From TrEMBL, chain A:
Main location: nucleus
Top-rank taxon, per record: Eukaryota
Pfam families registered for this protein in UniProt: RNA_pol_Rbc25 (PF08292), SHS2_Rpb7-N (PF03876)
Biological role: DNA-dependent RNA polymerase which catalyzes the transcription of DNA into RNA using the four ribonucleoside triphosphates as substrates.
InterPro entries named in the record: NA-bd_OB-fold, RNA_pol_III_Rbc25, RNA_pol_Rpb7-like_N_sf, Rpb7-like, Rpb7-like_N
Entry similarity comment: Belongs to the eukaryotic RPB7/RPC8 RNA polymerase subunit family.
Domain RNA polymerase III subunit Rpc25 residues, every copy: 83-192
Key words, A-Z: DNA-directed RNA polymerase, Nucleus, Transcription
Gene3D superfamilies (UniProt xref): Nucleic acid-binding proteins (2.40.50.140), RNA polymerase Rpb7-like, N-terminal domain (3.30.1490.120)
Protein name: DNA-directed RNA polymerase subunit
Record SUPFAM superfamilies: N-terminal, heterodimerisation domain of RBP7 (RpoE) (SSF88798), Nucleic acid-binding proteins (SSF50249)
GO cellular component, one term: nuclear DNA-directed RNA polymerase complex
From TrEMBL, chain B:
Biological processes annotated in GO: transcription initiation at RNA polymerase III promoter
UniProt entry keywords in alphabetical sequence: DNA-directed RNA polymerase, Nucleus, Transcription
Source species, domain of life: Eukaryota
Matching InterPro entries: HRDC-like_sf (IPR010997), RNA_pol_Rpb4/RPC9_core (IPR006590), Rpb4/RPC9 (IPR005574), Rpb4/RPC9_sf (IPR038324), RPC9 (IPR038846)
Range of residues in the leader sequence: none
Record Pfam families: RNA_pol_Rpb4
Main location: nucleus
Protein name: DNA-directed RNA polymerase III subunit RPC9
Keyword Transcription: yes
PANTHER family cross-referenced by the UniProt entry: CALCITONIN GENE-RELATED PEPTIDE-RECEPTOR COMPONENT PROTEIN (PTHR15561), DNA-DIRECTED RNA POLYMERASE III SUBUNIT RPC9 (PTHR15561:SF0)
Molecular functions (GO terms): nucleotide binding
Amino acid sequence: MFILTKIADLVQIAPAQFEKHSRVAIENNINAKYANRVIQKIGLCICMYDLLWSSEGLIGHGTGLVNVNVEFRLIVFRPFKGEALFGRISSATPEGLNIRTEFFEEIFVPFKELPDGCEFDHNQQTWTWVVDGAPMYYDKNESVRLQVIDEVWHDQRPESTSEEAVEKAKKISPYSVRGTMMKEGLGCCIWWD
Amino acid sequence: MKILEAQSAILTNFEVYQFLNRQAKEYQEQKRRGPGNLETLRRELLQYFESKPSPLSQEPCTYNEQSISRLLERLRPYEITKGEMIMIVNLRPTNPVALNTVIEDMEDRFDQSQQEDISAGIAEVLGEFPDEEEEPEGNQGDVMETTEAR
């Protein structure tokens, strides 16, 4: 689920942070910039893992900011294709199941990836899997195992600087995961344990 | 920002869990708060790791620094791939049905008794949740003990 990504970047330390140790100021700056943010084709950044290198600090003209070039490794959430993971059902629609984890909400299992014999119950708004005439429910908040089959990237860069374009670009999630529950052992954990 | 290496290593959930726990403790000791986005995300991740069915939710923790190397040793005869091994460590499948979700083409690669031996090996090294019906007996500090009770 997690990988390390090596990144080079420029960190700018404001005078208000000068009282801190450089290492702390650099780490805070990196985490403020990256934690809980998606880099396209890399994944959801968690936090700095280690600082590999940093340059001397150079004070810029006019601003008083200290500029430091750094290289560091970042912990990133990026489940690989074929990876099985735990999640929880957040909602169901006729299109499929929305799954979330505590820290990542954008997982979707399309109905085609549910096992044969699954039906959507419009009254209950849930999917049920009917085996030998007995229905089993994909209830909301139920813990599930799913397997990643695909990932969808969406660059949120707006088409223009107008507020409308910015809002529109933000609506689509920058990174989402598609999963399957076709294989034996996938789906609600309580069915199998 | 420049990406120097998109993927320089893979971490198991246990490693990330340890890292974040240590970070939370260090920050507390140094009376320091990380940026808000980090504090929130760390709390959510720890919550994910510590809620069932995550194996890291079991108390006392059944994983330690040696777990992964011991697991590799125990499962060596079965030629399990690196990706599969990572999933085993993350999900701890202790029965053949759960194992089926992390091993590709399991039916073709392993017969019934092999599947059971792999599951048992995982439970031996990584522990397993005690049966809910039975009261867990005495001291569960030793991982081996817990698994043999089943």
